[in-house]
TrEMBL record:
Pathway note: Purine metabolism; GMP biosynthesis; GMP from XMP (L-Gln route): step 1/1
Protein name: GMP synthase [glutamine-hydrolyzing]
Binding partners and assembly: Homodimer.
Catalysed reactions listed for this entry: XMP + L-glutamine + ATP + H2O = GMP + L-glutamate + AMP + diphosphate + 2 H(+)
One Gene Ontology term, aspect cellular component: cytosol
Species lineage: Bacteria, Pseudomonadati, Pseudomonadota, Gammaproteobacteria, Vibrionales
Broad EC category: ligase
Transmembrane segments: none
Species whose genome carries this gene: Candidatus Photodesmus blepharonis
InterPro entries, alphabetized: Class_I_gatase-like, GATASE, GMP_synth_C, GMP_synth_GATase, GMP_synthase, GMPS_ATP_PPase_dom, NAD/GMP_synthase, Rossmann-like_a/b/a_fold
């Protein structure tokens, strides 16, 4: 039972395409478990993974280049179906004696492809298909055992197949949504050709995770730092279902949370539907005390992280049998930290999470969401009864308002910011804009500016509003919110929040600016 939903799985080999992770997500959407490995993976790791099919991603390299990236020789001798996308197709062609050439020009964007031969890859598809191209090289001669199965005006070998050995290649990208029936093509490969059953579904994922958690922790107790964010909330709901009262959640109110956040989190998770063990730690004074007089953003972040860890450590030690520490690590975190271990990524800000816990905690880690993408986490969260507004809420940084109050953090400024932020968010909801932006919040600027209200002069603080649109939070555009909307929010903040005399809107993109101000 435990391994069942992973058993029939697909391996994606990464040759550096910006769409590689997207391939994995699409396969999982189809209902088949899938993982991405680097293209230089060892034979033993492939054997251990035991895939039912292999997909070779695209990539910026050129197979004609000396020392170009190649696929492990082993995959062409083990009898597993292989599907090459773009660069992946070039690799297959080269491997079996075909020819790949640069056309001198990059073809990028929509193309219409004509299916010229029957193949299992294009089963149930009409003759003409809208696809998305992004390539410079193309196959100009296919290997002997292969047949052309599709072509475009600019690319004679738009797709090729060796049905007998179950090797396929396409020049276009079926994983991007611009390829209209891309998901059908991927489904034809993983379900039709590789024969995978579609078991990677929320209900099965939950059942499987529960069985694994029970197996892993036995009668031990588990402690979880609950923040009220998507990942820790879903871990809490999952563990609650798996081990009930053996789970204790620690929720730390650091005084840097949004308006009524602490009450909302406690209400949801101690409600009848969950009725979890939650320790609520009111630690506002402790955090503010530690932050007093600190101005430097990095120093502030580090202090918030350290105080959090100290408190969490103290609370965990009070629990007698807590041998396990649960974390909401998700798949992209694993991928990112692997990438950052190469040392190529420069540290811009020290994002904190519970990973920095001291060794003397002497607990084992349990990370039940480690294999899941964010959208999968949300889907299983819904199935577990975590409220929609928790699952689809904008992200909130670990250091909270600490990175949204520039310079020194004072309680009175936190209180002003909370009120202004709540008005902004409330109006986003009521104008139907909340889910159209990826993240929105208010920032407290410690500058005073002159204003006039009634006949009285004001000399008060400034609030900046920030709203961005992004897919991955690595880059972001500022959101073009309607002027009427901004005007309403600004009026409300200045009228309703005593102590604010001016509201500005942040029109900086990332890069060069980061999303948070500190
Ligand atoms: P930046 O400001 O780096 O933010 O462009 C990118 C995304 O990360 C969030 N963020 C954090 N999340 N701990 C977190 O859990 C942190 O320390 C942290 N700092 C920034 C930020 O809100 C945005 O979504």
């Amino acid at each position: 039972m435990i391994k069942d939903i992973y058993k029939q799985r697909i391996l994606v080999l990464d040759f550096g395409s910006q769409y590689t992770q997207l391939i994995a997500r699409r396969i999982r959407e189809i209902g088949v478990y899938c993982e991405v490995f680097n293209c230089d993976v060892k034979k033993s790791d492939i054997c251990k993974f035991d895939p039912k099919g292999i997909i070779l991603s695209g990539g910026p390299d050129s197979v004609g280049r000396k020392d170009s990236l190649s696929a492990p020789e082993y995959i062409f001798s083990c009898g597993i179906p292989i599907f090459g996308i773009c660069y992946g197709m070039h690799l297959i062609a080269k491997q079996f004696g075909g020819k790949v050439m640069g056309t001198g020009e990059r073809e990028f964007g929509h193309a219409s492809i004509k299916i010229t031969n029957t193949s299992s890859l294009f089963k149930d598809l009409d003759e003409i298909q809208d696809v998305w191209m992004s390539h410079a090289d193309q196959v100009v001669e296919i290997p002997v055992q292969f047949a052309q199965i599709a072509q475009t005006d600019t690319c004679f070998y738009g797709a090729m197949a060796d049905e007998e050995r179950r090797y396929y290649g396409v020049q276009f990208h079926p994983e991007v949504t611009h390829t209209k029936n891309g998901i059908q093509i991927l489904k034809n490969f993983v379900v039709g050709i590789c024969g995978c059953e579609r078991k990677w579904k929320p209900r099965f994922i939950i059942d499987n995770a529960i069985a694994r958690i029970r197996d892993q922790v036995g009668d031990d107790e588990v402690v979880l730092a609950l923040s009220g964010g998507v990942d820790s909330s879903v871990v809490a709901a999952l563990l609650n279902l798996a081990i009930g009262t053996k789970l204790t959640c620690v929720f730390v109110d650091n005084g840097l949370l949004r308006l009524n956040e602490s009450e909302k989190v406690m209400e949801i998770f101690s409600s009848q539907s969950f009725s979890m063990n939650i320790i609520h730690v009111s630690a506002e004074n402790r955090f503010l005390e530690a932050l007093r007089g600190k101005l430097d953003p990095e120093e502030k972040r580090k202090i918030i992280g350290k105080v959090f860890i100290d408190i969490f450590n103290e609370e965990s030690k009070k629990l007698k049998n807590a041998r396990w520490l649960a974390q909401g690590t998700i798949h992209p975190d694993v991928v990112e930290s692997a990438a950052s271990e190469t040392g190529k990524a420069q540290m811009i800000k020290s994002h904190h999470n519970v990973a920095g816990l001291p060794d003397d905690m002497d607990m084992n880690l349990i990370e039940p969401l480690r294999e899941l993408f964010k959208d999968e986490v949300r889907r299983i969260g819904l199935e577990l009864g975590v409220p929609y507004n928790v699952l689809y809420r904008h992200p909130f940084p670990g250091p909270g308002l600490g990175v949204r109050i520039l310079g020194e953090i004072r309680k009175e400024h936190c209180d002003l910011l909370r009120l202004a932020d709540a008005i902004f968010i409330e109006e986003l909801y009521s104008w139907g804009l909340y889910y159209k932006v990826s993240q929105a919040f208010a920032v407290f600027l410690p500058i005073r500016s002159v204003g006039i209200m009634g006949d009285a002069r004001k000399y008060d603080w400034v609030i900046s509003l920030r709203a961005i649109e992004t897919v991955d939070f690595m880059t972001a555009r500022w959101a073009c919110l309607p002027y009427d909307f901004l005007s309403k929010v600004s009026n409300r903040i200045i009228n309703e929040v005593e102590g604010i005399s001016r509201v500005v809107y942040d029109i900086s993109g990332k890069p060069p600016s980061t999303i948070e101000w500190e």
